[in-house]
Amino acid sequence: MVDHMPEENVNQVVDSGKGIPAHPDSPDSPDSPGLPDSPGYELPLLLLGGFRTLIDRLHARLADEGHPGMRPAHGFAMQAIGGRGATASEIGRRLGVSKQAAGKTVDRLLALGYAERADDPADARRKLVRLTPRGRDALARSAAVFDELRAEWSAVLGADRVRALEADLRNVVPAETAFRLDATSWLGGN
Length: 190
Fold this sequence. Notes:
Layout (H helix, E strand, L loop, with lengths): L41 H23 L7 H10 L6 H8 L3 H14 L2 E6 L2 E9 L1 H25 L1 H14 L18
């Protein structure tokens, strides 16, 4: 963590409101020209907070519906396995982690009954990881819960605003990265 240095405004994310001069456009600033504009760092934090809120609520619901061992990493891994199955190397590539890290997650999915190993019908030398009926049930329930959570956001914000938010995000998020699963690589994975 960077030490707080008000004269340099070094740690504005962590120390916001702790003696740092107000942003010129903030409502607390005497120089505010009108409507406030949030500092740039708030956008990714709010997006992450929204993501985290949805994921945490999803996993609470999944636990109530018979999937108490599910974790966010498991959902990402099950998406990487896909409907046809995948090798540990393929799962690792899709998640942006090493084959060994993917193998540990796969081992956990096997232990929880969400996945199984099977021979690849196209190449007997390869082992595929496939979702079990329990894994497919967890993904189906996840999809249903996400639909419910989206409906809750629509009830609070308005359906038009949620659709506009989604459209706006599609406009600014490059298509090739919109549904990438390798978020773990941001936090020190391979």
